[in-house]
Write a structure and sequence with these properties.
single chain; alpha+beta; Fructose-1,6-Bisphosphatase, Chain A, domain 1; 2 domains; eight-stranded mixed beta sheet; five-stranded mixed beta sheet; 29% helix; globular; binds 1,6-di-O-phosphono-alpha-D-fructofuranose
Amino acid sequence: MRKVPLSRFLIDEQWQSQALPAELRLLVEVVARAVKAISLNVNKGALAGVLGDAGTGNVQGEAQKKLDVIANEILLEANEWGGHLAAMASEEMEKPHPIPHRMPKGEYLLLFDPLDGSSNIDVNIAVGTIFSVLRCPEGVDPADEKAFLQSGTRQVCAGFAVYGPSTVLVLTVGRGVHSFTLDREVGSFILTREDIRIPEDTKEFAINASNQRFWEPPVQRYVSELIAGKTGPRGKDFNMRWVASMVADVYRILMRGGVFLYPRDTKDPSKPGRLRLLYEANPMAMIVEQAGGAATTGRERILDVVPTALHQRVAVILGSRNEVEVAARHHG
Ligand code: AFP
């Protein structure tokens, strides 16, 4: 494979395919630089005193880890001054973060989960960063969350980083999915997988099985068939994985197929599912669809969901197209 740094790849996308406006290329470069800084902090772990709780809570009512706050600050600081953004929104902040008046502004909105899987950080399991890019609608105040309430089909870019044995950046600008591995000696992301395609079938599913008693009947039926394996209607055995870091489960699915489910459950009726639509489900759904997979709530395509609130949650079933289809059929 040609050793292509992210910057070269993006320049090619900009000039050869006219698919990437200069401002969006700058946005991706800036986010990639922020991801490198987050990776550095994550990899220092205990040595940098960045583990453990921050002693604060976020808008989700969840205790924040120190690295949640650090990663959020890194992304805000890196993106404030480039002139490519109108505003940002984060899992860690209740309201949108407008670009300060003294800074130049651009046409894009950047949404992110700065540290996905943060409950894993203290036990040294892979975590990540998820991001989504929208255009700011004309005539809408970017500081108003209404500017962000756009269906996932409106995304112009989506990506995530996995801080695992290696740091990998997965990216789509609407022309396939590509992954870049961080070369720490040079400090560059190097293209390592071009035009990733998810196998259409799979024998591997990912779900937090401890919630089984809270699932709706269609999911109960679907998962029990997977567990029945050869002895059941599927006629084949399945394997199960659950990392509890969506970035790690989705990356595995991009590499070898699989189906990931975080369904609605009755555990907390106020939360239709755990995952957030705008900065977790939508970017992952765009990536999975661009890689030939499928992403549904069980009842509708995730990218078609019309958002009504910045931090709303949604049920997620995504991965190998044919397997997602089987799960969706159980929903009638
Ligand atoms: P945290 O970021 O709070 O650890 O949540 C991670 C996550 O949003 C997603 O990455 C996982 O797939 C899912 O939640 C894990 O949820 P459970 O802890 O309920 O299994």
